[in-house]
Amino acid sequence: MTVHFITGGTDHEQQREGDYLTKDERYERTRECMQIVKQAWTSREAFDYQGKHYKFADFVSDVFPVQQPRPRLSFRRLLTRRLPGGRRRGRHLLPVGRAAGTDG
After folding, report:
1. Which of 33, 69, 88, 94 is 20 to 30 A from 8 (CA-CA)?
2. Considering the entire predicted model, what is its pTM?
3. What percentage of residues in the chain have a pLDDT greater than 70?
């Protein structure tokens, strides 16, 4: 199984929901979230986290995935450049530089 993270829509769509981060900042927040999820799913011990977008202390999950060590994680970044025919081009961005599409 692969868990796919969705960063959000256009700036206008996000602002209607109270999210005023830029698109690049939202991608940064998504990568940070993915790092936290990976740690939470693989650590049985409490941990602290301090990042740009998230901060908490003494966190330990009581829910763990059946797939071990954890499911693969992925997300897709839509580029602003359009391809012929009006399609947007997407590419996978990886927080830890693994094979395209997933972080392993």
Report:
1. 69
2. 0.70
3. 73
